[in-house]
Amino acid sequence: MIVAFSVTPLGVGEDVGEYVADAVRVVRESGLPNRTDAMFTSIEGEWDEVMDVVKRAVAAVEARAPRVSVVLKADIRPGVTDGMTSKVETVERHLSD
């Protein structure tokens, strides 16, 4: 499964990078395959382990912010591994044709 999610602290002002870094740190320390871009962090693994990491990432932000917004999208596809890489490779292959 791949989960793309964003965690946004609310009520802390406009500069939220420090808070977001707390969440991304949790994801990176999980050891699961992950990727962060300007809008989302994606993480890949089994349901329980991925959702545990998401929950802990949210908790890291929640510990410092009075309110937290979470956006989450999941691709649940049993038996697929390395989906984050293979999906992008497929698109790149089509773009190079």
TrEMBL record:
GO CC terms of this entry: cytosol
Q: Which InterPro entries match?
A: MTH1187/YkoF-like (IPR029756), Thiamine_BP (IPR002767), UPF0045_domain (IPR051614)
N-terminal signal peptide: none
Pfam families, per this entry? Thiamine_BP
Q: Which residues cross the membrane?
A: none
Superkingdom classification of source? Bacteria
Please report the stretch or stretches of sequence annotated as the Thiamine-binding protein domain. Answer: 3-92
**PANTHER family referenced in this protein's UniProt entry, alphabetically:** UPF0045 PROTEIN ECM15 (PTHR33777)
Which family, according to the similarity comment?
A: Belongs to the UPF0045 family.
Please report the name of this protein according to its UniProt entry: MTH1187 family thiamine-binding protein
Organism listed in the record? Streptomyces boluensis
